[in-house]
Give the backbone structure.
Amino acid sequence: MRGGLVMLVVVSFAFALAAGAVSADAGMRVLPHVTLIGDSVPDALVNDNEATAILEQGIDLDAEVAVCRRVDGESCPDGNVRPPNVVQLVTAMGSKLGPNVVVCVGYNDFEDQYAQNIENALAALRTAGVKHVWWLTLRAAHHGYLTMNDDIEAAAQKHPELSVIDWNVYSRSHPDWFQADGLHLLAPGAEAMATLIHQRLLGDGVALKPVHLTTTKLPVAHRGKSYRARLTAAAGDAPYRFMLLARAPQGIHLEATGTIIGRPRVGPGVYALNVRVKDSANSFDTRRITLRVTS
C-alpha cells in the first residue's frame, strides 16, 4: 500500500509538472518566421539599425540579402563571388525559409527574362513549402523596370500566394531617400522600405500587433522634491522595456520598468522626454511626452 501511495504521489507530481510546462508554453507567443530575400537595394535595411528594428517588429526575421543577386540565371559578380540566385537559394534552404517570404530582387535581372524568372522562383518557393510571398516592385529609375513591374503584377494575378508591395509608387516622390543612381538607399530610404514591408505584414495578419505607449500626460514635478510617475503601454507582447532616446532633465531617471523617479534639479519649465517602449516581439513605439517642472 505504501509503495502504491509513493507511486501515486510521483505520478501526480510528474503530471503537475507536465501541465505547468504546457501552460507556460501556451502563454508564450511564437513569432512568425519571415525570410527576406534581396539584392544590393534591400541590403541597406540590414545595415541600418533603425531600419532593422522597424522590420523586425512582431516577426522572426531571416534576412538573406546579397549584392548582385538575380532571380534566376547566373548572378552578376560581386568581386570574385557570384551569389546564389533566388531559385538556387530557395532550393538550398528548403523548409528553413518558413511559410512567409518577402522578395526584393530584380535590379540585376534582364528585362526580357524577368517574367519567366518570377515563374521559376515561385515554383521553387512552392516546392520549399512557402505559403505566402510578397514581391516588391522595382523603383522605375529606368524604363525597363516599368515592364518588369508589370511582370510582377501579372504573376500576382495568376498566383494567389503572391502579393505585390508597390515600392515604386511608395517611393516615387522621395528622391531624397536614394543615392545618386536613384535605386540604392540612404538611411531614410532604408527605414521607409522597412516601414512599408512591416505595414504590409501587419495588415496581412503576419506580424504581431505592435506595442504602443498609452501614457499621454505626466504629473507635475516640483524642483528639488521627490518625484515618481509610471509610464504604461498596451498591446504587443509583454514584458515591456522602456528607455529614453535623449537625456532626461537633470535629476530625473527612467527605469526599464517604466517608472520615472528622482528629484528635478532644473528650473521651472516644460521639458520633453523622448520615450521608447519595446516588447518581447521586437515591436516598439516612440513618443514625446512633456514633463512640467515648477518651483
Observations:
- Residues 1-27 have pLDDT under 50 and may be disordered.
- The domain at 33-203 is CATH 3.40.50.1110 (Rossmann fold).
- The first helix runs from residue 2 to 27.
